[in-house]
Amino acid sequence: MKIMAVDYGDAHTGVAVSDRTGTLCGFSTVVTAYRPDALAERLKALIAEHEVTELVLGHPINMDGTRGPRAEKAEAFAELLRAETGLPVTLWDERRTTVDAHNILLANGKRAKERKKTVDAVAASLMLEGYLTYKKRNG
Question: Contact at 8 Å (CB) between 53 and 1?
Answer without folding.
Answer: yes
